[in-house]
């Protein structure tokens, strides 16, 4: 079973790297949208010196990977090496694929979406395509005050500024759009599409409300012991996770039982458990 799971993880790294490469060759590179990272830097060098994007990405990633092994240890992992190699190779193999659009906005948005899907699939199985995230980890090793997230932002910022100098500032602005879109899609792929709502209910009628939720909605809930900040009285806070379609029904139950109840509802990106979904790590 372990080998099967490992095979599926590497299969996802292959798939994600291929999808990511398509975003570069069919959307971003042909339109000079250098959306940060090693791929963005390679895109700039391609138009300045006619150097192949895929091989330049590999050229940058090899010393980054070796530096990662030296300074970060084996935690860099074989998945990073595989992802870096595949991303570069697939970029070169698909370099002659037809360009989907020459519209800069469409290329930035859809290129960002497809890049986010590809990288999100790789990141979801704890893989990496090297590049910015690995460079940021090395930067964090030497300058601990700079977090990995801040390091990624700094590196992408300078790459996009470089694209603005090399091309023009309008293209740099489109690159920011592509970077923003891809980062959001990566989050979506990693966190999952299983959006739900977490509801906190503060009321003096928690017993009655809880019984209605259990019987009428068939949803589980949790009692949280709390203390009123003003009254200093002990209170029960109900926590319940529901689907978006159940929000109106829950609010009606609470309002009919206790019109003065205090209800907090917020988004939950992924729910694992009975009534929702399970995930085997």
Automatic annotation (TrEMBL):
What residue stretches are annotated with the DUF2179 domain?
A: 219-273
**One Gene Ontology cellular component annotation held by this UniProt entry:** plasma membrane
Keywords of this protein's UniProt record, alphabetized? Cell membrane, Membrane, Transmembrane, Transmembrane helix
Query: Where does the signal peptide begin and end?
Result: none
Cross-referenced InterPro entries: DUF2179 (IPR019264), N-reg_PII/ATP_PRibTrfase_C (IPR015867), UPF0750_membrane (IPR051461), YitT (IPR003740)
Q: Where are the transmembrane segments?
A: 7-29, 49-73, 105-125, 146-167
Subcellular location per the Swiss-Prot or TrEMBL entry? Cell membrane
> How is this protein positioned relative to the membrane?
Multi-pass membrane protein
Q: What is this protein called?
A: DUF2179 domain-containing protein
């Amino acid at each position: 079973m372990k080998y099967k799971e490992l095979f599926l993880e590497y299969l996802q790294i292959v798939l994600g790297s291929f999808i990511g490469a398509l975003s570069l060759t069919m959307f971003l590179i042909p339109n000079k949208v250098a959306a940060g990272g090693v791929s963005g830097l390679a895109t700039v060098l391609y138009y300045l010196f006619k150097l192949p994007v895929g091989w330049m990405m590999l050229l940058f990633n090899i010393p980054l990977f070796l530096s990662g092994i030296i300074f970060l240890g084996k935690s860099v992992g074989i998945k990073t090496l595989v992802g870096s190699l595949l991303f570069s190779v697939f970029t070169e193999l698909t370099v002659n694929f037809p360009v989907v659009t020459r519209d800069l906005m469409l290329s930035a948005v859809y290129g960002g979406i497809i890049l986010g899907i590809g990288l999100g699939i790789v990141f979801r199985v704890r893989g990496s395509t090297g590049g910015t995230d690995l460079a940021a980890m090395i930067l964090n090793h030497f300058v601990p005050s700079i977090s990995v997230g801040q390091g990624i932002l700094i590196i992408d910022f300078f790459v996009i500024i470089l694209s603005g100098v090399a091309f023009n500032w309008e293209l740099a602005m489109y690159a920011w759009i592509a970077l923003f879109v891809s980062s959001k899609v990566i989050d979506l792929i990693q966190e999952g599409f299983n959006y739900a709502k977490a509801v906190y209910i503060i009321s003096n009628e928690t017993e009655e409300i809880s019984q209605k939720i259990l019987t009428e909605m068939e949803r589980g809930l949790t009692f949280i012991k709390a203390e009123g900040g003003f009254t200093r009285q002990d209170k029960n806070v109900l926590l319940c996770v529901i689907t978006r379609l159940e929000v109106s029904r829950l609010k009606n139950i609470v309002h009919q039982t206790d019109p003065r109840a205090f209800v907090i509802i917020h988004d939950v990106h992924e729910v694992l458990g009975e009534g929702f979904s399970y995930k085997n790590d």
